[in-house]
Design goal:
The protein contains four helices and 23 strands. The protein has helices spanning about 1-30, 120-130, 140-150, 180-185; strands spanning about 60-70, 85-95, 95-105, 110, 130-135, 150-155, 165, 175-180, 195, 210-215, 215-225, 230-235, 235-240, 250, 250-255, 260, 270, 275-285, 285-295, 305, 315, 320-325, 330. Strand 11 (about 215-225) and strand 12 form a beta hairpin. It is globular and about 50 Å long. The chain starts with a helix and ends with a strand.
Length: about 325
Amino acid sequence: MAEGKDKRKLLIFTFLSLMLLLMTAFLCGCSDSPNSSGNIENGQDDNSGKIDPLTGQKAQKMVPLLAVMVDNLGVARPQTGLGEAGVVYEMEAEAKITRFMALFAGDPPSTVGPVRSARSYYLQICKEWDALYAHVGGSDDATANIKGWGIRDLDEFRNGEEYSRDKSRKAPHNVYLNIDKATTGEKQNLQAHWRFGDAPQGDADFSKISFSYGSGNNVSYEFSAREKRYLRYINGSPHSDRKSGKQIAVTNVVIQYASHQYRADGTACIDIQVIGSGKAEYFLAGKHYEGTWKKESMKSPTYFFDGEGQKITFPRGNTWIQVLRPGAPVEKV
């Protein structure tokens, strides 16, 4: 009798153990983690790899988040390193001349430039990323705000070792930044602003986008169905990298409409209202959407929403944010 009871106990224990193992495997396999939906958290993927917080893509090398002011006058083109930035903002500086702020984190180029001066509304974007800010001087208010707003400053005037001057180009369009030297010893911020996902399927909604900042800066993007990216042009010519010769290709193009005001000081200087809200258009790996943007404070991220008020999910890849005046025409064909 005792031997029979012992056998039954053994069978029951074995059965219960198997059921527990099956339930554990089922629950682990069905976990609804952020990674399983294509989002990233704290710069890690499912395999504990490095994820670029700017693009949502895996990266072999990660540097502390760096924002670089890049020249866009005709004499500064072609630039170096812009096509390898994770996120690029283009905004007017003055007299409808634009400047880029290029952000780098994953697999950056060795060099970027030409580097130019700071403006306060770029600082308001830089602050939301908590990025190291590379520039060559700046307007009086921007120079004061860098200190007052706690921007992590990397001014060429005070940090010469990270910069070099190209003798084949005329000053002030000849300053270049060494990214490794600039980021050594800096803190690393891997927190992503945006949700990332897969590229959409199907044909592109528009094959070409075009708009203008002024007579010397007519911008267009032509969609490559093979790459699922937008090839960038300036004044009808490919916008290419000086070092590699490759044409800049962009996964996501955002049109952010923001109010511009000239200062009442007799100069051509302007202010752009990047804190607040406004309309936006999105060209995401071929698909077009309309919606809005919102930035509540200098430290808060700029969030982008679709027409139903839902946060945009960006296809993994680089993003160029084109800040335009409200009502500026954008041609789509």
